[in-house]
Design goal:
Layout (H helix, E strand, L loop, with lengths): L1 E6 L3 H11 L6 E6 L2 H5 L8 E5 L7 H11 L4 E6 L4 H9 L4 E4 L5 H38 L1 H19 L3 H29 L8 E4 H11 L1 H7 L2 E5 L4 E4 L1 H17 L7 E9 L2 E7 L32 H11 L4 E3 L8 E6 L18
Parallel strand pairs: 1-2, 1-3, 3-4, 4-5, 7-9
Antiparallel strand pairs: 6-8, 9-10, 10-12, 11-12
Helix pairs in contact: 5-7, 5-11, 6-7, 8-10, 10-11
Amino acid sequence: MLDIMIVDDDDADRKLLRRLLKSPQEDRSFREASSGKSALEHAGQHIDVIFLDYLLPGLTGLDLLERFVRTWPKAAIILMTGQGDEEVAKTAILQGASDYIPKSIMTSGALNRMMENGMKLSHMRWKLEEQRRELSLFSDTLVHDLRAPVRAIKFLSEQIQADFDSGHMEEVYKEFDMMKLSVIRMSELIESLACHVSLDGSSKWEHVPLDNLCERVSMALAREISDSGAQLTWNTRNLSTFCIAPEIAQMLQNLVANSIKYCGEGVPQIHIDVEQIEGGVKLSVSDNGVGIPEAFRETIFAPFKRLQQTESLPGSGLGLATCQKVARRHRGEIWCGESKDSGATIHVTLKAREQDTPQLTTACRSTS
């Protein structure tokens, strides 16, 4: 099914376009709008191609282009006008239009070629923008989040040295196994990062038990948990989620690390709760720390945004922003819940499904 929207205030021109665009070989649906305002009422609906008239009541097609590109980032937008104008054509292309055509030369063949080429171009633009956003996300992650597994390895190496000197070889063997797992988890994260900095890279989507992800978090934050005496518990109800495992583990790691960092004077008590919801799962990370004032519950997810009372503590302010990007990548949301007595609860939904997520199940080529 090809979804086409025609935005033109002339009934006769809309009728002509429908006739030229109808195809016996392909199922096509048509939406019509006589103004930019009525066209934007279709926001949220899937559109493959938009034919946008240059002269419209109120705003011109050029005025609407930027808004249309934001609303339908994957759609091919073809600007139409009654007269050919090279300056209008050039401006339209620069503002995001896929192509431009004077109405006087419209034919079925020309329009179909424009649609085919325009959809390829718009998909390429969308993919490049997605890659740019992913590169930004994972470069932040590289700087901000690889520190925890490095600290875990450093902590375990110190424990191995101390237990070896004391002759506690059983503990040494256990700690070597833990270090090996930490190295594996860090390697997985690096592989995921490597996939996203390459335009043709891919990440491994898979069904992963939530217990496994919580265990990864406990391992990565072994040093922080030991130093603070934190009590980390979880109840996953044996649920799984379809995800890029290193990313979700990293997101949970950020949330748990924040709970430890902002514990206040008491011993951190942190609980990860998982429940089934329609279309996916919801993860809730609760603690008994200093809490988050209501006025900051939305702004804390902005990059580099930190609470005033925590500015003296180490941190870049990227952790929660990274969590938000990861949640959105998995078709989910993240928000701060209301505090009951003390502490904070962060809720995350994950709704990525195998049937609507690219099947990226092979590891990227090594970049080393």
